[in-house]
Amino acid sequence: MSSAAGEPISSLKLDSYLPYRLSVASNAVSRLIARAYEDRFGLTIAQWRLIAVLAEDGPLTQQAIGSRTVMDKVTVSRATQGLVKRRLVQRAPHDADGRSHRLALAKAGTRLYREVAPVALEYEARLLQQFEPSAVAGLKQLLLHLERVAEELAAGDGGR
User: Average pLDDT of 61-74?
Assistant: First the structure.
């Protein structure tokens, strides 16, 4: 097949292109679970990720949360604003950096986390119930390896 300019068109097929398949699968899973977070708890995906990270790691700066979740600054900032407004997250000045703040879960945020976490785990279990445990473990290993390789490639070529 040729383009309008007569040059050959790549044989790329989206349905078999791994980055596309990963994106589509990730979006489908995120949409499924996001409906539960939104409907039952009034949380966006970004807000839930922020709460989960603070529950696991303790107080962090917005920059650290962005790095941990791979969410951009604007997304983290919007999620933070919504959670602070709902009094689920507390913002305190950062001792070492006057321009930064440390975020921590408020008591209400901890209670909410304890409600949402079992729902998240239930969705994961339902999503993976048709797979053998060894296949799930293998998938998780492959995904972690893909993340590492992608980070190495991005660092090696300046993120081109």
Answer: 94
Q: What pLDDT digit, counting tens, does each position of 34-45 carry? A: 888 898 999 999
pTM score, whole prediction: 0.81
pLDDT at 10: 77
Q: Which CATH class is domain 14-122?
A: mainly alpha
SS (H, E, C) the chain: CECCCCCECCCCCHHHCHHHHHHHHHHHHHHHHHHHHHHHHCCCHHHHHHHHHHHHHCCEEHHHHHHHHCCCHHHHHHHHHHHHHCCCEEEEECCCCCCCEEEEECHHHHHHHHHHHHHHHHHHHHHHCCCCHHHHHHHHHHHHHHHHHHHHHHHHCCCC
